């Protein structure tokens, strides 16, 4: 971990005061990725995600300034997370009960702070204390840096998924068992 990096957990209610900063970091991290990553769409996403059961955010700051964050939530039986999943998938793969799967929705770091271990530390901090059996996330196949990082961190590719929203890309679906997670520094 960077010497002056601070990680802090937030509930949805606590994170309300950070929304403008979250959008700014998101836009900075995706500045070169085109029209899919815009403030209006991302604010809508946050508005839909923050009320979900088990929602949690971990923010990274340096000198009091937000440099990155990650968040996710538990998948409930009525989740739409798996809408657009591509066959074949293992039997029962998309069955959720609110305690089985934690979905990591975002992991973003300002461009200036990328490739310094911030994403790794955020990732480990978010999922290390979870009580679910597994975690899942979606990653674009062309995002080689993220794919390589997730592979290094023990994630496995299962299939692909294409959400129903306009101009949605096809994502790789990754999963990771959470029983093998240990907090930072306990390896």
From TrEMBL:
Keyword NAD: no
InterPro entries referenced in this protein's UniProt entry, alphabetically: Acyl_CoA_acyltransferase, GNAT_dom
Domain N-acetyltransferase: 5-177
Entries under Pfam families matching the protein: Acetyltransf_1
Name of protein: Acetyltransferase (GNAT) family protein
One MF term in the entry's GO annotations: acyltransferase activity, transferring groups other than amino-acyl groups
Keyword S-adenosyl-L-methionine included in the entry's annotation: no
Native source organism of the sequence: Micromonospora narathiwatensis
Source organism superkingdom: Bacteria
Keywords per UniProt: Transferase
